[in-house]
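User: What would this chain look like folded?
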Amino acid sequence: MARLRGRAPEGERLRAGIPHGHWRTTTFVAGLRIGGIDAPMLIDGAINAASFLAYVQQVLVPTLSPGDVVLEQIAS
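Assistant: Here's the prediction, encoded as structure tokens.
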């Protein structure tokens, strides 16, 4: 974001750099256990049903043990 305020000598324009990047969404998904985070995955872009299903099948399920309970919590 560009600065909205700043100081410069009278009559001169304020020059300041602004951050720039890829400006895309990155989504972090992980399982949470009592002992810490398990099965983390970083998705380039917003998550959708296909990417969530791929996460569950390919990343989360291999880390589960018999008797583990999985809950889905969507943060907004």
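The CA atoms of residues 7 and 14 lie 7 Å apart. If you want, I can go into more detail on any region.
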